[in-house]
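Give me the fold.
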Amino acid sequence: MDLYSVVCVRDLATSQKWFEVFFGRPADEIIGEELLWQVGENAWVVIDDRHMRAARVGGTMITLGVTDLDDILARLTAYGIEHEPVETYGNGVRHVDILDPDGNSLSLAQASAHTLSTPRA
């Protein structure tokens, strides 16, 4: 199964610059008017500013699991991208919300070493 999460944006050029900083690289693929970043083996984040998406701008909520949260936040801060305070959940997961220029929420979550080593039932 493949997953394509579409983030609707107002201006592709502005959003492209922001997402390149967020992901730390240019888009992995360009298909038509959409820019795609591969975030997993079969998972992609897509940005799209076509007029048929206008009503959905700012309504995206995606959480990405990462292993290097502090490094990512340092990179974002160096480029002037702000984020909400990092929360630590009771199970040790560290979570932070980051808003793109259109108000779309791209959250990052890093599991603790304990969470990663705990078997699931």
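Residues 9 and 49 are 5 Å apart (CA to CA).
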